[in-house]
Amino acid sequence: MTFSVVCNVSDIPVGEALKVEGSEGAIAIFNVDGELFATQDRCTHGDWSLSEGGYLEGDIVECSLHMGKFCVRTGKVKAAPPCDPLKMFPLKIEGDDVLVDFDTGYYAP
User: Fold this and answer.
1) Fewer Cβ atoms within 10 Å of its own Cβ: the N or the C terminal residue of the chain?
2) How many angstroms separate the CA atoms of 79 and 75, rounded?
């Protein structure tokens, strides 16, 4: 795994998301009560940013385009119209730095 520094922990307030650019496109980093999760930024149903055009409530992000919902912990669909889950990316924190492995995206089982 190759991790890259993408931001500082303080760049993502609790209940918010941050969009970062990776080798496979944009990735969203969500802060759920101090725990960070990295997913693909685009909704799997429509071409819409989840970090810039979504609403995070707990660990569920709602796409504002068609109101589909995903769990940011697992990437799984929680409300239609999306059928496909979000791709997840390994994330770790070193000091104040947030690091993401852009090359090892996966779908939760």
Assistant:
1) C
2) 12
According to DSSP, the residues that pair with 24 across neighbouring strands are: none
Q: In angstroms, what CA-CA distances link 16 with 7, 12, 13, 86, 93?
A: 14, 6, 5, 18, 17
Domains of the chain: 4-100 (2.102.10.10)
Q: Say whether 20 sits in a helix, a strand or coil.
A: strand
**What CA–CA distance (Å, rounded) separates 42 from 50?**
6
Per-residue pLDDT of 10-66, as tens digits, reads 999 999 999 999 877 899 999 999 999 999 999 999 889 999 989 999 999 999 999
Query: Residue 23, exposed/middle/buried by CB under 10 A (0-12, 13-18, 19+)?
Result: exposed
Tens-place pLDDT, residues 22-36: 877 899 999 999 999
